Amino acid sequence: MSKTYRVGFASLVHDHVWGELRHWKAHPNVEIVAAGDVNAELRTQFGTEAGVENVYDSWQEMIEKEELDIVQASAENSAGVDIVEAAAAKGIHVVSEKPMAARLSQADRMLAAAADAGILLMVNWPTAWSPALNTAMNLITDGAIGDLFYFKWRSAHNGPKEIGCSRYFYEWLYDEEKNGAGALMDYCCYCADMCAYLLGLPEQVTAFRDTFVKDYPVPDDNAVIVMKYGNAFGITEASWTQKVGYVTPNPVVYGTEGALMVSGNQVHLHRAGSDAEVVDPDPIPEGRRNAPEYLIHCLETGEPIEGLCSPKVSRDAQEILEAGLVSSDSGQVVNLPMS
């Protein structure tokens, strides 16, 4: 590998950006050259942590003025589409944070812009880099528990503000237009992505969301989406009001020949007719351990972006989320595809 990839950061209001910055800095074939954000405090923080001087007042100015190979999009969910379209127009590859967008129409525009320009678009799902979850997914797709008929995942904490997210992050998470919803969009998205990868689009979606606990305005602080496939259920739960850690394994998966669950860093596998066994996860190979590594691996090898970070899988997850939003607001079951 000889090419050095010039990377710019488009917006800094997604708190995942600082962990991703460390991954980009650690890659031997990356040069971090610039960032753009409207917030002076974040610009100063980035300049200090990244050791760069070219920090612009907007991501638009950065993309216009800098020669970049890759953009790390770390914006509000609703702004991802504008970043991808602007980057694609200049032939710049994009890594965007999860979920893909705030609305399905935005996700479709992102796919179209990437396809028209011939750039790579990756959606960075933190779940993609978990050894235990990757091992569980591989066991499922290899048929270790037979045909999947039940997949449940819960994402929960006590709320973005309460767990210490920056105000630049939680202010837009609490804005339905910028986020897409509340906890429903922020946290139901993980299971929507996993189910879209394992099972594709469901036939029907029904969902509920509400504000049960917060005493300040949020779009919703708890949500449940149920996905009905031909022969399977997917259930995704989200909460911004859970003060304790996980009290059940996550995920819990049943198939026609067994079941599995992830607890901590181990996979518990129970095949029909056999005792339960603990499977220690395989380490994720170099080149696939985080989003910067994987994007550059795909650029170097010509391999497509696959799995949870695939733009197509992420787009289908967005349709599940959109259906969940429509169902929860209308009180009706939503049939898919929606268009």
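The above is record 1. Record 2 follows with the same two-line structure.
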Amino acid sequence: MQIYIKIIWAYLKIGIFGFGGGYAMLSLVEKSVVDPGWISETTFTDIVAISQMTPGPIGINSATYIGYVAPGTAAPELSSPIWGILGSIFATLAVTLPSFFLVLYCSHFIRRHNESGIIKSIFSGLRPVVVGLIASAAIMLMNAANFNPQGINWQLYTNIVICAAAFILAYFPIKIGNNKFKIHPIFIIIAAGLAGYIIYG
């Protein structure tokens, strides 16, 4: 049963210190769940991909899934769905409640002191930190588990091409005649899934 205490403690820390949203907290999540051996690095990257495609914030989605699989991984006697659901509930509550109470208090505090030079300076310092955390999450996901899980060179090059194509389609607008438009991320996700099925299926 100690695994539940560890899950709650890990996600309380993530909920309290996960500044900047889901992408910014990814490195903190990985440190908390991969290092103890609850899930593998490959499973973690799969969770990130699924969490981005499913409705809801990535931090909560990943907490729900990791809370489900972690008890069975840590203790085989807790591998039944009931123990997994209990872990999901604990992880989800632990990651959301600190944020709820912090935002509740901070919104009242900031409303009273929004013209304060100290508050403005604090936010000025936090903005680049959030950008750095998001950048570290992007670099963290550029690993063998994502690009070359089987150690095959042609898969590595193919995955790099898919990644580059997705970035170009998402970032740069396409010009047709006098009109410019960007492809919706949903269509890019569907196209990448189809490409993966055709290439690796």
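The first helix runs from residue 2 to 17.
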